[in-house]
User: What shape does this take?
Amino acid sequence: PQIISSGGELIRINATKNSIERSTNGGVSWAPRCVSSSAGDFLSLASDGSKLLATTSKGLYTSTNRGISWVRR
Assistant: This one.
């Protein structure tokens, strides 16, 4: 999916900006969470409860800080 619920907020991929964004008001407004392109193009998101997982054009990446930074797995 390109949008998930995690930690009481919605987290989505903004494909136009190739960024990760968050919403704390049910999707009414969105704020940037990660705008780095070092992970490649974000394709899909998932959560295992303790971290976020992202499939990107460069492989699988994980985040332990709710999508602020990403590490290749």
Notes: The mean pLDDT is 92.
